Amino acid sequence: MQATDWRTTVGRGAPKTLRARFTLSAALIVGFVLAVCAGIFYLLLQGALFAEVRAAADGDTDDLEARLGSLPAVTETDDDRFFQIISATGEVTASSMSAPGTALDIADTDEGVILRIPEESADFLVTAEDTDDGQTIIVGRTLEDVQETLSTVGGLLAGMVPLLILIVSVVTWLVVGRALAPVERMRREVDEVTSRNLHRRIDDPGRSDEIGRLARTMNRMLERLEQSQRSQRRFISDASHELKSPLASLRQYAEVARSHPDRISADDLSRAVLDEGGRLERLVAGMLVLARADEQSLEVKAREVDLDDLVLAEGRRLRTSTELDLDATEVGAARVLGDGALLAQMVRNLVDNAAQHARSQVRLRLSATESTAVLAVEDDGLGVPVEDRERVFERFARLDESRTRNSGGSGLGLSIVQEIVSAHHGTVQISDSPLGGVCIEVRIPSSA
Q1: Which of 155, 176, 285, 305 has the highest CB neighbour count under 10 A?
Q2: Domains in the chain, please, with CATH?
Q3: Cα–Cα distance, 216 to 194 (Å, whole number)
């Protein structure tokens, strides 16, 4: 037999709506408070009424004790009280007409006892007091009025408590329903939002309370979703276009080589395949890094990395592959705690970006403080307008479409740099370079 969690069982029987839960909670709390208050009130009233009857009985006892020697054998009294005077030998020496025919055996007590007298329909509170000469004065007072009062009050309380609980439940149901009506309206509006109408927004009630803040928060969430959807669609469109270009080039070379073998040599064909294949490889690798960053799975295998070795290696590559004038005289020693492969990709993307936009010169600078390593890559190109310096970090962003494609760029380089720097808890920013182009400065916490 499979065991069942008690929380699951309780949860199944619980109200399904917040409105019902608030109403049930209010009813239970108010019912408990009213029941406790009603019980306390009933007990206090009972004690006060009994104390009043007891005080009246004590008054009768004092009066009888003062007239003890002059009392007749039988005295006429009201039906709501009686008395007996019992001698030391246990005989009744004086009594009222309503008293029992036999002597009552009641101990001397301050509280008294409750007795049902024969032929009487109500109980009596009976007290006994011993006198100095050995006699006992027994006095009884009817509890009929007390019991009627308690019965009436008890009935009223038994009827009023459920009525008050019902009133509180109805009021709570209405008030909570009215308070949650905007939330239900917003829920319906959000439920109607799909990927095709993310431009829709929730009606803002213009209030400064929780409802108004919830509406504004949900609108900001929808705005972020819409922006994310636009970015995703643009990314897919740009990625498809970027993948299409090298594939189309490879297809073109292959068709020409098959149809006209004499027009394309094997060296030209292999060079084209290698170039376009390398472009595809770089594009796919960049997209993979960005996808991992989006999924928060860009893992940094932290170890001490000599950043100056990576910078100088890229400088040597640039010297052998281009005719640009490279200045690396300001590259100093800097060690950081990070992922060597990711940092190498970051440095390569920065150097490639500078080489693509430089006219004739690229400068590399690297310095370190006690807590930060600072890498700056400068070029003497056309520069980047201030209003576009944030946009260049967007994926597939191009300020010059034709030039970037012709130079082999995909528009992902600086996006990858930003993601790698963020994964290492660093910062990257663009400023003007003294060379005339741009200066991209990266700051990464050092291992010191």
Answers
A1: 305
A2: 224-290 (1.10.287.130), 301-445 (3.30.565.10)
A3: 19
